[in-house]
Amino acid sequence: MTMLESRTQAIPEVVAARAEQARKVYGEGETQVVALDSVDVSFFAGEFTAIMGPSGSGKSTLMHSLAGLDRLTSGRVVIGDVDLSQLSERDLTLLRRTKIGFVFQAFNLIPTLTAEENITLPIDLGRAAPDMAWIDEVVRAVGLSDRLGHKPNELSGGQQQRVAVARALASRPQVVFADEPTGNLDSTTGAAILDFMRNAVRQYHQTIVMVTHDPVAASYADRVLFLADGQIRSELRDPNTDSILAALRSPAQTASNDSGRN
Amino acid sequence: MWNITRKNVAANKVRLALTALAIVLGVGFVSSANILSDGLRDSFGDLAAEIVDGTDLQVDRVDSDAPLTRADVERIEVVPGVRVAEGNYGEDTVFPVRPDGTLVRPEGPPVLAFSWTVDEQLNPSAIEQGRAPEGPGEWIVDFSTAEREGFVIGETYDLVVPTAEGFAAAELVGTFRFGEDNQTNGAVLLAFETTTAAVLLDQTDFASVSIAIDGTRPVSTVRTDVEGLFTDGYEVLDTADLNAETSAGFNQAITIFAWVLRSFAIIALFVSIFIIANTFNIVMSQRVRELGLLRAVGATPRQVRRAVLGEALIVGLIASATGIVVGLGLAYGLEAALNGIGAELPPFDKPLSLQTIAIGMTVGVVVTLVSAWVPARRAGRTSPVTAISGSDGTDAGSRRSTIIGGVLAVLGGALTGIALFGGIETTSTLLILLGVGAALFLVGITLLSSLVAAPISRALGAPLAAIYKRPGFLAKENAARNPKRTATTAAALMIGLSLVSMAFVIGQTLKSDLNTLLETTVQADYAAFPNTSGLVPESIVSDLEAAPEFDTVVGFKYWSTDVNGREGTEIGTTDFDQLNAVLDLDLVDGDFSEVTNDTTAIWEGFAEDNGLALGDSVTVLLENDTTTELTIVAVFADSNIFEGLLVTDTRWDTIGEQDTFDWVGINAAGDDLAEADAAIEAFATAYPQVLVQSAAQYRADITGQVDFLLMILTGFLGLAILIAFIGIVNTMALSVFERTRELGLLRAVGMTRRQTHTMVRWEAAIVSLVGAIFGAGVGVLFAVLVVVATPDFVLNNLSIPWLSLIALVVVAGLIGLLAGFMPARRAGKLDVLDAIG
Lengths: 262, 837
Ligand SMILES: Nc1ncnc2c1ncn2[C@@H]1O[C@H](COP(=O)(O)OP(=O)(O)O)[C@@H](O)[C@H]1O
Ligand SMILES: [Mg+2]
Known about the structure:
heterodimer, A: alpha/beta, Rossmann fold, 4-stranded antiparallel β-sheet, 11 helices, 35% helix, 24% strand, B: alpha+beta, 4 domains, 10-stranded mixed β-sheet, 24 helices, 22 strands, 58% helix, 16% strand, disordered N terminus, binds adenosine-5'-diphosphate, binds magnesium ion
């Protein structure tokens, strides 16, 4: 497979999440929109993947489907070795709680809970004893120890997003999905969040999938996937801002990388 | 955008429907009270018309001392143009006795005994079977009663009558039909021949004289002539006057009944105000961006306010109209319910008068507009900046509302205090003061309670956090996050429950006072009371004493007179030699046996209030308007039975005019009450006008009556509680809508549907519990005031039914859980993607 052969780095062994022939259709007849068109994609454990693409290309749909927030029209999503299409509503919820982390663009935190309570929320929703050592580690890494007792409305936007990332990591999920996590932040604050995420991948072997518009943000990733019209059109390994901008500008990318998906 | 609009409409549908429902129920209840009273008034109006139909003129005594005798009737009969005149006697303390010894005595309608009018035109009734009564020992009864009771013509029955003897035996010689179709509206009618009636009804003067004219002269002329026969103290009425007077008598009872119903409706509407105000407030804060935008593009505060009030007006109009229709249905339901608890209402139409419609519409619209007033003002004050910044939706109790709340609570408390302790005589003034005072107080408490709603919610929710972990914790935090919203929603429940718990406390106090009375004061095995509105005849004491089954028999008579210038001081007499056997009045000083014609035994409280002690003298006003001095020879502490002076029988005769007993205490001869029970049973048959009960029977009787009243009261207050329930549903539904994103987030990070349900339902339960706790607290406070304000022999030692109150709070919690059901389902069904998108 050319897509894999194009890697310059050692290929990670384990697939943390994958979509097979993922197809998502909204509406019917005239107004029908194919948001995902038979997407095959794998995300490797311990890798930071960015998904880019024009607005309406299906980035959010792909992420939501992978994260068990939305169901596919056809095809399947597998997290670790669990096939999401087979799960009941309840099991899907439990899977989100334990195996998946989320960071949304905004409104990530429950206003009635303190920063710390927000971080441990997914764990607290379950009955299992939390891994305190790990949580301490995450809390330390997030660098907000003096603000842990504060409610979200007492935190800045950047601090709120950090708490959100910490929350996503707290249950040591299989994959963390982030939908434009820095979209609402200024570049300095955004950079700190992205550093923190990349650090989680490097240091703790965390798997992160992030949707972004911003080539600078995408440059923090190990790998960038380019989406258009519901299909993955190309990908970049070890990107930098320039290579991403080049890829985005290339009118040919739509056709040239088609061979990557049979 | 379309998504948001759709969600808005869906949420508004529920909101509008629930808001309207509160008004629909309130207006429905008001309307049904009006429909019911109109219907009853019509029904009794027809009855009144039937009664006076044949009477052209009637002479009434205005002054009860003015004589009206056979001589007067004869004087009337010779007035030119008078065809016939007949004197009437009437009394409502005569009761037929069934063969088993029980009295024919319906709960609501009266038993009316009167003299049988011979003239067919004057008499609204006519013989149905048998014949008219012609002399002593004969009576007749309306045929419906005869059929219902199985009275047979030719048989002899006992009748309880207001003579000294107390009862008489008479043969039933016929039955009669009242008016066209014996529409007695449940009343029992019986009649005697005129002279017999005078004896049995213990009356010397006629109550009235009915006159029929012969048509040779106009009624007005005859009336003038008849009026010429009498001086002041009488009045002469024609058919129209009579009709008005008779109807007025019925109407008074109906008006009281209607106001009882209306007061429950007013409570329900009062509760609705909180609900509607709360709903509008929440919706306005949810629409704050939209309102800000309106202001930004140039809408004046006035325009915004009007737009909101316009919305309220539409809701009010639709809901009131629906309420009136519902009221019609409720009228039938109420009729059935009231008859179900033994009201024996006559059959009546359910007319929907223009007045009912006008009142229903006005009340509904005004209540809605009043409720929307504050939210509309707030909406008008929205700053245009909020169009961009939005608002966080929280509304902690402000300083201003705290001050207003404090002022209202104090003002309301003061009015209530004046009503209870201000010595107000007029019942209507008293009730209005009490109602307005309590209402202001409740509004004040509601405003103040938003200060403590958060900590109370947290305290109540603390166990939930332990039981349900994070969902329980969130339930408690959510209940605490909008203290004003929680306080207002809870207030609706608080009002209903405060009244229920007040009733519980007063009921319990009545019962415990009764127990104290029976355990500490009353030593008698049995007590005899008047069974009718008459009194216990003196002969019963000697009869009972003669029976071997009984040992001591002591009668009590009460009266009131001026003592040391104190008007209305209780004064009584009894047999001091045997008093201790039946009653323990808790003697603290002196000795009862020393009471002679010039001495008295006095209640400690009265002595203290008047600075009196053993050996002092009191001045007592006698019947002949002179006074006498009595020396105090005994002081007793018990106030359950009596709070005044006790004198000897001989002294009594110079003070009070009554020679029958108010009650008689009886002790059985042996320890075995079985024999005595049988003897008592025999006495019950011999003295149908007397009710003899053992202490246990008496207790069961009174307890049963108290419980029955509590049940009815709770039933009627159920409407207010239902509206409060709707309010909780409404608030929770709006809160869920408001927190759509938050719920979506919770679901995304792994909150299951069940956990979502738990969280929302328990939040509702906490709000409900806050209301219940405040309600119970305020209710106990009200009850304490009432107990302190009423005389000790009515309500003495406050007794709080903790178990019932706890049960009430638990029920309120369950109501909250139930109210949270629908909003919880909505929260659980939220599409995660919609919510976070
Ligand atoms: N709930 C929905 N209903 C109908 N169409 C939708 C819905 N969600 C997304 N779409 C459509 O699917 C396509 C992909 O959307 P999305 O995944 O949100 O793209 P992106 O995140 O890349 O902007 C778009 O054409 C969008 O209009
Ligand atoms: Mg998107």
